[in-house]
Design a protein that fits this description.
The chain is mostly helical and 469 residues long. It has 19 helices and no strands.
């Protein structure tokens, strides 16, 4: 992310908490690029000469999808971090809606402008993001990691809305540096190896690097396995096959539900908590999807005379919307929040890139496999037989949501209200199941990484003295 002219970390000066929040939240505009690009791809895939544009745009969106939540996590006030990073998912949903509107207005043009106009509009979102980021500070944690302490203190002072010599800046600086030094002692921060036998992102260190990296990777994978993109990539076709006459309108309704409920979900992240929201969301999605599947295979089938059960159709639509609502308040925004929070500073960029790569990999895999799962035709591309599951595919998505519930319970800690350095402390001193208790202890005692390190040194000294005596 650009931190100001020539990456100096300069930019707009402010002492206002409001503008600090705006600075942290503005990066979420990158989600417009993500959502708009994803929505545009779905509309231009059948158009000629689209491959080159897809590759170029995909490169930029891939960078944005990793850097935006990381920048937000490192710059946000800890008590608002969940809501600010959650805005990224909200802007993704808004971007998808904008793409649908633009594509709908250009799809009937008889020339290349039918896909060039949607692609050109994307430059507007990119220009706004670049222009805004030039005015924002670089992440202070990034600057400290690179040894640029003075620039880091300046950026930290701006984000804390105070002067560089203020006690809050010094305290936060000491906290970040203590965690960073502890991190550096455990590894070099490489993707895989410092030595062949010692991978950094996947090492079982005191910081639990391996657990935290794999948690991010699997969280992004489970997010895709909820089946949400089945609705947004294949929803119109699915609803038509289910006998719903105006499938396009139902798809638009699903988009609106997703956007509106994401707005609500963003406000719940720092109130309800990450872990609890994921558990609630997974349980709600699981129940809703099994109801869709059961209704679909019992009373929702199209009859031999092509008649349909209108009540069953309405139940299908209602519970698909309920399922989307549960996703939008939980696994939509919360996964992006946790992806930016869970990794220690020394490997954060690399661990996040692996997690986001997992998101795109599963996104591609599910998008590619879906026609083979649900199409009623005897064979698919290259003569491969399709499963013809139809509405029964929701039994699969319901089962994967049950998997999301189990995964969250055993592998996702509660980190609401903690600084990024306090999250390091939680992973060092507690476990996932007891994370809520230890989080409460950290907040009640206002425990910091520096205090904990000093306490550990005193304990070692006392132990040594006792042993000597």
């Amino acid at each position: 992310m650009a931190g100001g002219p020539a990456g100096s970390g300069a930019g707009v000066e402010t002492k206002s908490l409001f503008w600090t929040v705006v600075m942290s939240a503005f990066a979420a505009f990158g989600g417009i690029l993500f959502g708009y690009d994803t929505g545009t791809i779905g509309g231009i895939m059948a158009m000629p000469d689209w491959l080159q544009q897809f590759v170029i745009a995909g490169f930029g969106v891939g960078l944005v999808s990793c850097l935006v939540p990381m920048y937000q996590s490192e710059c946000s006030p800890k008590h608002l971090r969940g809501a600010i990073v959650g805005l990224y998912q909200l802007t993704i949903t808004i971007g998808a809606l904008l793409a649908a509107i633009v594509l709908n207005s250009t799809q009937h043009r008889p020339d290349h402008s039918s896909w060039r106009i949607p692609i050109a509009v994307q430059f507007v979102w990119a220009a706004i993001l670049v222009g805004g980021m030039l005015c924002l500070p670089e992440s202070p944690r990034y600057l400290f990691k690179k040894g640029r302490d003075e620039a880091g203190r300046n950026a930290l002072a701006r984000l804390l809305t105070t002067s560089t010599d203020a006690p809050e800046v010094e305290s936060e600086y000491q906290e970040i540096m203590a965690a960073l030094e502890a991190d550096r002692k455990l590894g070099s921060g490489s993707y895989l190896v410092r030595l062949i036998r010692e991978p950094d992102c996947f090492r079982n260190t005191a910081n639990k690097n391996a657990l935290r990296t794999w948690t991010g990777i699997l969280l992004q994978g489970w997010q895709q396995l909820t089946g949400i993109n089945f609705i947004f990539y294949y929803g119109t076709t699915f609803f038509k096959q289910a006998g719903i006459s105006n499938a396009f309108i139902i798809t638009i309704i699903c988009d609106v539900v997703n956007t509106v409920m994401t707005i609500i979900g963003v406000q719940l992240i720092d109130r309800v908590g990450r872990r609890r929201l994921l558990l609630i969301g997974a349980a709600g999605m699981c129940i809703a999807e099994f109801i869709v599947a059961i209704v679909g295979v019992t009373v929702g089938q199209i009859q031999s005379d092509h008649s349909v059960n209108l009540v069953a159709q309405r139940v299908l639509i209602a519970f698909v919307c309920i399922y989307i609502a549960f996703f939008a308040i939980s696994w939509g925004p919360v996964v992006w929040v946790l992806t930016g929070e869970l990794s220690p500073l020394n490997i954060r960029a690399k661990a996040m890139s692996l997690a986001v790569a997992s998101n795109w990999l599963w996104n591609f895999g599910i998008g590619y496999a879906t026609p083979y799962l649900v199409n009623p035709s005897t064979t698919g591309v290259l003569g491969v037989k399709t499963a013809d599951l139809g509405v029964k595919v929701f039994f699969i998505w319901g089962s994967t949501c049950a998997g999301c519930l189990i995964f969250t319970y055993f592998f996702v800690p509660e980190v609401k209200g903690l600084s990024l350095e306090q999250i390091d402390l939680l992973y060092r001193e507690s476990n996932v199941i007891n994370s809520e208790k230890y989080r409460a202890k950290i907040l009640a005692e206002n425990e910091t990484f520096v205090q904990h390190a000093k306490g550990a040194v005193l304990e070692n000294v006392e132990y040594a003295n006792e042993k000597t005596a």
